[in-house]
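Morning!

This is the sequence you dropped in the shared folder:
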Amino acid sequence: MKARYDCSKCPGYCCSYDRIEVSEFDIARLAKHFGLDVDTARERFTWRYKTKDHDERVLRHKQDHVFKSTCRFFDQDERRCTIYAARPNVCRRYPTGPTCGYYDFLVFEREQQGDDEFIPSA
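The structure's back. Tokens below.
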């Protein structure tokens, strides 16, 4: 199915998810991309999110001027991924179908506001 969304017109909503889980394979890919060993990449780029119900590695974040925070690899001025070729599998698969709920919402809001660059705030 053909995608019915355009990530280049989005401010990076999926990059603002609090927990962007990464696998050991993803960490190895990042390590190779940056010319680092896996342990250094794991320490530098991820943190362990552990609760009673979860134990996962997630990408580190940085403060953002649109959302509370975004993935540390997100260019906050250009609103684009800086490691697109090395991005984690979860990012490669998102969204899982031909539509993106946030993009649909964004298009609707931009039409209502008459502003092609409008970004709804929380």
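Headline: The chain has a mean pLDDT of 93.

More detail when I'm at my desk.
O.
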